[in-house]
Amino acid sequence: MAENFAGLADLVSWFKKSKRPFPWRGSPGNSISPYAVWVSEVMLQQTRAEVVIPYFQSWMKQFPDITSLAQASEDEVIKAWEGLGYYARPRRLLRAAQYLMAHHSGNIPSSPDLLAKIPGFGPYTVGAVASFAFHQKAAAVDGNVMRFLSRYLLIRDDIGTPSVQEEFRRRTMELLPNREPWVVMEAMIELGAVICKRQPLCTICPVRTACRAFGEGIAAELPRKSPAKATIRLTRKAVVLKCGEKVLVGQVPLGQVMAGLFEFPIFEGEQVDVYHELGVCLNEKPCLLGSLDIIRYVFTHYQVTLQPTLWEVDKNIEWPGYKWVALGDLRQLPFSSGHRRLCEQILRYFDEMEKM
Ligand code: SF4
Questions:
Q1: Is residue 113 exposed (0-12), middle (13-18) or buried (19+ Cβ within 10 Å)?
Q2: Which residue's CA is the closest to the ligand 1 atom numbered 7?
Q3: pTM assigned to the model
Q4: pLDDT tens, position by position, 107-137
Q5: Which of 101, 163, 321, 342 is packed most tightly, with the most Cβ within 10 A?
Q6: Distance from Cα 147 to the centre of ligand 1, integer Å
Q7: Which domains does the chain carry?
Q8: Which atom of ligand 1 is least distant from the CA of 202?
């Protein structure tokens, strides 16, 4: 065991007794494939484990291996990811699966150098796959580990800067023992997730006697991080344009947030005159059927208020970037979170109209 990691034995013993039984964690007689480790690690980035569980299980049913993932369409992978957010992740998984088919016969290589060449594999994913899938001594340093180590080692530097993150990876490698380093790596992540949280639970922490921040009484002041971007409030007027049994939806272009997801047409701003704008876009005056319920949602650092209205036209007008989709097919499409709720709202609305 690493001599410089005071409290290591207590950490490992706590982890072996208390670790949460997630489907991506192997158990005796039930080993997990490198592919499953990789998928779970990508899903867990920026998402809580409890939220990831059902997505992981259905993803593994739909795409059980690299071959099936590589053959999927972008729409299929985004649909499977719908609701998890940060949609660059499923696109990167797809690209990486296609790369692995082309360069590694559909297998994930174990060498960190080769892992680092796979599209979308940053330092965390390389470390996590090398450690948890191939049981190598590798640093998988996420926010949980940085929070724990900044307190345990009393590191006061800004954890948002790449050079400090590199320093955390170096210090992690120094701490990892030669014996079962993957267990210690996972134990550090688990400790950061459930004990050394933003509000640390020091009184029940297995390493508190060795923790420098606890000793100095400043655990809750660490880690240091530059302030997050200020929240920006957006008002968007969404248009549900109906023609017979179809509505108009468009796919967000590549390069934009929510790229690949479907949305209803929107006009930005509290003051925008939707009737006028629609007339310009459609070259025809639509008929207003009514207002729908306001939807509020958050993505990255935006707080959005979606103010939807329902309109009708009597022919399938062309609007570049949009297409007419049958109401019955809407649930097959991947929508961004606010527009998914709008989609459900109008499907309920039309159901009720039919019953009247
Ligand atoms: Fe974190 Fe407190 Fe444990 Fe230190 S004692 S590692 S601050 S939970």
A1: exposed
A2: 219
A3: 0.80
A4: 999 999 999 999 999 999 999 999 999 999 9
A5: 342
A6: 9
A7: 8-221 (1.10.340.30), 232-355 (3.90.79.10)
A8: 2
